[in-house]
Amino acid sequence: MTFSVQDKRVVVVGGGRSGVAAAALLLARGARVTLADTAPHLEHGAELERLGAALALGPHEPALFAAADLIVLSPGVPLEQEAIRAAQRAGVPVIGEVELASRWLTGRVIAITGTKGKSTTTTLAARMLEEAGFDAIAGGNLGQALSAQVARSRPESLHVVEVSSFQLESTETFHPWIAVLLNLSADHLDRHASVAAYGAAKARLFRRQTPDDWAVVNADDPAALALARGGRARRFDFALRAAVQDGVTVEDELIVRRDQGAAAPLVPLASVTLPGRHLLSDVLAAAAVGCLAGVPPAAMQRAVEQFHGLEHALERVTALGGVEFVNDSKATNILSARRAIESFDDGRGLVVIMGGRFKGGRFEDLRDVVAARAQAIVAIGEARPRIREAFVDLVAVYDADSMGDAVRRAFAAATPGGVVLLAPACASFDMFRDYAERGRVFKEEVRHLAAEVGSSTGLQ
Question: Which stretch, 142-151, 289-298, 302-311, has highest mean pLDDT?
Fold first, then answer.
């Protein structure tokens, strides 16, 4: 039966990018839409009102939610909010924006999740498909919301969708043709009740798959492998270290596809320009998607050669006084910060800017890589006391009250030939709107510092 919202009363909760796209889609499909947000003002509020939506700003009204025929949640809205739970108890269905959009897609879905690497893998996989001539549309948690893709979805379309645990936890019928699980470690424990709950949300990726679908799993990650067990889809692994029978791996300076043990070359490692071995793992995952979709090796190689990484993901900013500045603001959890630090050789003299709003996990899990590679840490945001406690006996730890202060303290602590690395291991919301704003401010402060140093030394 075709899903319809014609003349239904739908409350969209959350006025960010995904919520606005969901509201516009619902209005186009004939729903009577109210967008509810606790903020007193919405950036796109006037536009939504012109389209026909009502706005309910400020504290949520339980009566509004209980009277709805459907509630659609933006990813940032927890299911546990009392107004939402009360509506559910009253029999109102509650779904997420990704679930809503997926019910109207006519193309197939390639869904990519994991604790680290989702955006890189999603972007590169889409570029491989585009190089091969497919109608590939990237988005979801990255870039264009899935709801904004519905209008251009065709049977031949391939929707390459980055999905977070927040988006997956409110899915019901979401059905990826190819489901990719990159890795799994503790994250978002400020939202999920436990690591098990976080994993259960990720596992919903495989829930609706059939034996005609594919599950692409990181064979180097025991937690990811355990999460994928029991799924009905065919398995196609990728790995840098583990033995792969059917999937993608590295042999003799080549990325290769193994099929029942036989290897076929895909992309020379020399074509990969991304820094860090963990980003090479993301390239393997994208290549696995390409293999299953029918992308020729030559198209894969062209996409890899033209892809130099994403903004805020081990992004080289500049060198100043012999010190390199690197922006990895997307390192919002312990695992991603670890991978960022591991990307630099022992003895490089790293100074790591770390901190923000703590999301769970253990800073102590970084002690070995900090001891091996870092000479100092500059702590920012709410997590400063935790960071100091975790590392003060290993390296010098400096507190900073702002990003500008952090950049200057890090530069003062660095030595020529060293690196100042922004790898927060935390969310950004205590100081910034999101990780992207944090990364942009870091780069701005580096530029300001460069201007100051140039002025004081007579450099231009």
Answer: 289-298
pTM, entire model: 0.84
Looking at residue 433, its pLDDT comes to 87
> If you write DSSP's letter for every residue of 310-378 in order, what string do you get?
-TTSSEEEEEETTEEEEE-TT--SHHHHHHHHHTS-TTS-EEEEEESB--SS-GGGGHHHHHHHEEEEE
Do residues 125 and 290 lie in contact, with contact meaning Cβ atoms separated by under 8 Å?
yes
Which domains are seen in the chain, by residue range?
Answer: 9-92 (3.40.50.720), 99-306 (3.40.1190.10), 315-453 (3.90.190.20)
| Tokens linked to 307 | 């892809």
What contacts 454, CB < 8 A, 6 or more positions away?
460
Q: Is 437 helix (H, G, I), strand (E, B) or coil?
A: helix
What is the distance between the alpha carbons of residues 448 and 444, in angstroms, rounded to a whole number? 6
Query: Which of 242, 268, 72 minimizes the C-alpha distance to 172?
Result: 72
| pLDDT tens-digit series, residues 361-418 | 899 999 999 999 999 999 999 999 999 999 999 999 999 999 999 999 999 999 999 9
Cβ count near 32 (within 10 Å)? 18
Residue whose C-alpha is closest to residue 372's, from 350, 390, 392, 340: 350
> Looking at the DSSP assignment, which residues form a beta bridge with residue 263?
258
Q: What is the dihedral of CA 172, 173, 179, 180, to 10 degrees?
A: -20
How far apart, in whole angstroms, are the C-alpha atoms of residue 126 and residue 310? 14
pLDDT in tens, 106-162: 999 999 999 888 999 999 999 999 999 999 999 998 889 999 999 999 999 999 999
Q: Please, are residues 238 and 216 in contact by the beta-carbon 8 Å criterion?
A: yes
